[in-house]
Amino acid sequence: MSTSSAKMVTGWHVLKIEGYPRTKGLPGRRSIQSSTFIVGGHSWYIGYFPGGMGSLGLGNTDYVSVQLNLHHPAASAEVFTQFKFSLLDHAGESVYSGTNSIFTFSSKTISHGISGFIKKTELESLYVKDDSFKIRCDVTVIKDIHGEDDPVALLDSQVGGDVTFEVGGNIFTAHRSSVFMAQLFGPMKEKTANHVRIDDMDARVFKAMLRFMYTDMLPDMEEDEKTVMSQHLLVAADRYNMERLKLICEDMLRKRINTDIVATTLVLAEQHGCCGLKDVCFKFLISPGNLKTVMANDSFQYLKNSCPSLLDELLANVAP
User: Is pTM, for the whole model, over 0.85?
Assistant: First the structure.
């Protein structure tokens, strides 16, 4: 038996949005930012996205999005943080909230948020009064985490692991009681098993997904393997309802669209409900030169065989 301790420092900040109708025209990823505030020795600010985060691949502009950002992080710092966004009524009481689990902020990952925080129609009908409303963000910074409380150390050491996963002939040990495992056990039938076999997944993909569950970060990858890993991880993320990982994979694929992968990526987008990624593929194929090159590839035959209905959509998009 071992003991570890962690101090938690909590604070909060309120962002008031005035003149709401004038903010509705902002496109996705354009945000309204709060002033900075200090919690746990770190500087933070809130981002409010009236147009949602559709350009990140969400493909749904019916929702507004909110985001917590770490301001000027130290190069080597990792800040373990839990936060909650709430809407306040005019008396300052919380009337609607969306809660996130513990996330890791660093110089590489300065932002985490809720893409589908609340529907615009619901926000406007219930919470906007006199063209204004208030967003509150409660932030808890976990400090002085020792030894096995470090998610990476906990995963790599396998200390206290009480469940094993067999994937492609490889054995992975994990912690059933950990909050990180809730995402994996949620959709699984073998919730009480000590050993679970997972088929139809590459061991390297599962290892990357498992590390993401513990750390909220993907492992380092060579540039030439990011595309294939992103495709496989997107399938895994959709299988286990890991929306944040799915969005990250979509964004990585969007940045790497070319004539070699656009057909297979379009099939993935169709099969796994990635509307934004699908739109990016169609826009790429609108170019006659791109379409001609893709049609000469074997991947185009794969597209026709896997999703024949996409050909009609492709024709409708290319014809104009």
Answer: no
